């Protein structure tokens, strides 16, 4: 994971956006059946590797984000935008797209 974080040092998300490195999709089912690439579902879990400064409020202050770098989060299947940086597939999404933080 350190390599993905090092490559993203040049990327700084704006406002309340976060950058998430999706976890690898499941290769096998619980019963041991190997899934082909076409049958694998999009990951809905990943590690936060960069966060923005927070959303600008009407008062001119920034709202602090609830997620931080290193958190493992769950998000909607089609949330955010998928981008590729130095060969790594990443998701850029708003903090509001995060459904839960895994503890």
What does this structure look like?
It is a single chain. The protein contains one helix and eight strands; from the N terminus they run H-E-E-E-E-E-E-E-E. The chain has a six-stranded antiparallel sheet with strand order 6-7-1-2-5-8. Strands 3-4 form a two-stranded antiparallel sheet. 6% of the residues lie in helices and 37% in strands. It is mainly beta. The protein has a single domain, classed as Roll (10 Kd Chaperonin, Protein Cpn10, Chain O). The two termini are 18 Å apart. The mean pLDDT is 81. It has one helix at 2-7, and strands at 17-22, 45-51, 55-56, 62-63, 72-75, 81-85, 88-94, 98-102.
List keywords for this structure.
two-stranded antiparallel ribbon; mainly beta; 10 Kd Chaperonin, Protein Cpn10, Chain O; 103 residues
């Amino acid at each position: 994971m350190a390599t993905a974080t090092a490559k993203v040092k040049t990327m700084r998300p704006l406002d309340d956006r976060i950058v998430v490195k999706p976890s690898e999709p499941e290769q096998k089912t619980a019963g041991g059946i190997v899934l082909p690439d076409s049958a694998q579902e999009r990951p809905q879990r990943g590690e936060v590797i960069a966060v923005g400064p927070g959303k600008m409020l009407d008062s001119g202050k920034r709202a602090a984000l609830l997620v931080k770098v290193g958190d493992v989060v769950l998000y909607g299947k089609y949330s955010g935008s998928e981008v590729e940086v130095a060969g790594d597939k990443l998701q850029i999404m708003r903090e509001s797209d995060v459904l839960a933080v895994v503890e």
